[in-house]
Amino acid sequence: MDERDAPGEGDGGDPGERVEDVTGTDAHDAAWEATRDDMAALAEERREGGWDVVTLTAGDVRIEARATGPEADDEGRYGLVFVVPKGDAEAFADVFEEGGFPAYEVYRAERDGRVFLVVSYFDPESETCILAAATYLKRDASRLVRTVAETEEMYTHVETLDRTHLGSFQHEDHTKFFPAVETVADAGE
Question: What are the start and end residues of every segment in region (Disordered) (predicted)?
Fold first, then answer.
């Protein structure tokens, strides 16, 4: 693999490491700032490797899970929905192609009940990388964790504030998003 191939896990360190070092009353704000800084560092690293890079900062994350019980619907959309501002939406639309980003990495850290993520989506053919920074309350994802445990698939979606759908990504390795998914599913949370 040359430097223009999709980077492997561990290249450039773990962007989530700095989140764990944050203390004090402003821990959430500092952790979110560290997450965005880590995304910027990853973007620079990818650009130096010759990749075109688009960065997204999710101002909100909606968590969608399939309904359970008698009202369950096998066709329902689920996953993390990254809600992005207009400028990010336009940059995303310029590079996104359905099914065009077959590789991905997830950098994840937790702090005080929140999950902080940077997701890297790669299209080796076009040498394009999309980086998305997001944060959400861990407790809000319990239904999604059950859905992911049942389906063994994870999705992320990108939308604008007015819910205009911009694109979706399918992830076969759901444990990158929810490392303890089997434990949670087994416990019946």
Answer: 1-31
